[in-house]
Design a protein that fits this description.
Layout lengths: L9 H4 L9 H17 L3 E3 L9 E4 L12 E20 L7 E15 L5 E7 H14 L10 H21 L1
Antiparallel strand pairs: 1-2, 2-3, 3-4, 4-5
């Protein structure tokens, strides 16, 4: 399993709701965690690995040695949001790009776990940022879509490089 890189068109498709909560879904989540750790990330959405499902995995520590923060969210949706702040983000699908993105500070997410049972997760700070970033992927939205005009200009050369590299690969 490998992480797709911008501008792969699959990334814009987002995900479809998960209806089957089975061993195959569990296996997919585990493979996504492994891919996330190999790439050095803290979150990964299924569309980033070419799977059009509303599934995301995360671990705020980003460490395979500390799995205590691992979470799998199926079909997540925001229930509550409060406060806004800018913070730096990067993305495994946008190597070499980091920028300030405005996000909600405190959120509550409703999602299904790997058994299909509905769960509620209150998040703040770093965890809230990760969840929102990955949920964007489930809708085909990129963190670079949320940049200020000046940051969009600043990252444009890197985006153009990624586009040229993609054209060479396909």
């Amino acid at each position: 399993m490998h992480v797709l890189v911008y501008p792969d068109p699959i990334l814009r498709r987002g995900g479809k709701p998960i209806t089957g909560f089975d061993a195959e879904l569990r296996s997919l989540a585990e493979r996504m965690f492994e891919a996330m750790y190999v790439e050095g990330g803290v979150g990964l959405a299924a569309p980033q690995v070419g799977i059009e499902q509303k599934l995301l995995v995360l671990n705020p520590s980003g460490s395979k040695d500390d799995r205590s923060g691992e979470r799998v969210l199926c079909n997540p949706r925001l229930l509550r949001k409060k406060g806004r702040e800018f913070g730096e983000e990067g993305c495994l699908s946008f190597p070499g790009i980091h920028a300030e993105v405005e996000r909600w500070v405190d959120i509550t997410v409703v999602y299904q776990d790997l058994d299909g049972k509905e769960q509620t997760l209150p998040c703040s700070g770093w965890l809230a940022r990760i969840v929102q970033h990955e949920m964007d992927h489930l809708e085909g939205v990129f963190f670079v879509d949320r940049l200020t005009a000046s940051d969009k200009l600043r990252v444009k050369p890197t985006l153009l490089e990624l586009e040229a590299e993609y054209r060479q690969r396909v």
